[in-house]
Amino acid sequence: MYASREDIGYDFGDDSKVGSKPIKPNPNIDGGWAWMIVLSSFLVHILIMGSQMALGILNMEWLEEFNQSRGLTAWVSSLSMGITLIVGPFIGLFISMCGCRKTAIIGGILNALGWILSAYASNVHYLFLTFGVTAGVGSGMVYLPAVVMVGQYFQKRRALAQGLSTTGTGFGAFLMTALLKYLCTEFGWRNAMFIQGAISLNLCVCGALMRPLFPKDVVSEKHVVRSNSEDNQAKALSHSAETIKSNGVLSEEPEKKEEATNEEVLDSVQHIEIGGKSRSGKSMYGLRILKTVSQLTVTVRKGFAIWYSSYFGAASLFTNRVFVAFIIWALFAYSSFVIPFIHLPEIVKQYNLSSQNNIFPLTSIIAIVHIFGKVILGIISDLPCISTWNVFLMANFTLVTCILTLPLMQTYVTLAVVCALIGFSSGYFSLMPVVTEDLVGTKHLANAYGIIICANGISALLGPPFAGLIYDMTHKYDFSFYISGLLYMVGIIFLLIQPCIQKKQRREKSTEEAQV
């Protein structure tokens, strides 16, 4: 999806400069350090997505502490969850410029800082900035590199690797729910957030494990890599230099001229430095600053060109009506999965089921079954006689049915059964990349999936506050689930209608051609 000059996975040589050295795949692809990348991504999903799924515990504490409306308080959790996904396309700019490792480490520090600063919150609006925005952006800066690096390190076993790493979400929701509940009970929510911030610093360790895939000839011939960096990126990424040219973003000749000009500036600065050793330290310091600025300018321009061509050059995707329907579905779907995690703890409290829920929380049931749902639905969709699209739709129908019936369940056993079905049917998340690829093709998969994830982020951002607002108006959560379920059903209907319309249009077109 994204790559910087540091993240290239194969040894690409230039025969005219290096020799007739055969192209060899990096030995770490599909093995070796690749499994450490899977472990790193797995831990990232536990610490980020798992923590976000456990925010219902903190949401109850914030309601008691600040005495604000449920709609306003829910914005804290939804901002963190939504921003994590929404900023994905923009985090790609950082990845293009400085690589996945540096981006993830910076994001880990920012995420931990957001948790720690939130421990000193004096009101809900303070949490909007510290937890919602700061921790949310930090989460996005770690989450996207964790997904991208798995894709770079795996070719043959990519589906297996992504599946193993994303199961961290289910494990994390189970573990973090228990951990946050224990910390809030023993130390209070402020100290719990402080401790969680310290735990989140382990994201920096996960980022450090994201070792870039270096070509073997980088060390010995750096000038070759520099002169061919554009070719390397074009071969390593799904979006190539041809995509940039076809979209009118950059042309080949101006880019070469600009690159040559920048190289001349850097070389001239280096010659001046060598010949002017006798000059004053002040002038040499100025030359070093000029050299650094020139190098930074080159890096930023190249990174921005790749990022711009990836997303703003993918306008042709929106001519696909089924893909547009898929985006509309994504805008409604994810909130129906998120709302139970945020508001279930309070629903249990209203039904006087806290004693049973303390033994085995309902959110933990969703999290555990969610793991099995991802694996089982993936296995079923891989069967030769089964359509992935049909499995995807059936899982969506099951989930929307559970959302609509959840308010009718008022005992722990019935709630547990519905939550288990929610967890299993939401395993369709593992099918989303496959469905997206079927809709737009392999060439546009990275860009299309990024847009879908961004739409999911908007859904996660608006869903929980909307549910809280409905409760403030009606003093019941029932209507929140009914309305979100109906909106979700509208999204599913869009998915059903558009393919039928396209099939009809194809039949009419083929009939007209046959008549002619």
TrEMBL record:
Residues 37-503 form the Major facilitator superfamily (MFS) profile domain. One of its GO terms (molecular function) is monocarboxylic acid transmembrane transporter activity. It comes from the Eukaryota. The chain crosses the membrane at residues 33-55, 75-96, 103-121, 127-148, 160-180, 192-214, 322-344, 359-377, 389-409, 415-436, 448-467, 479-497. It holds the Pfam family MFS_1. Keywords: Membrane, Transmembrane, Transmembrane helix. GO terms for cellular component: membrane. It is a multi-pass membrane protein. The keyword Transmembrane helix applies. It is found in: Membrane. The keyword Membrane applies. This is MOT14 protein. The gene is Slc16a14.
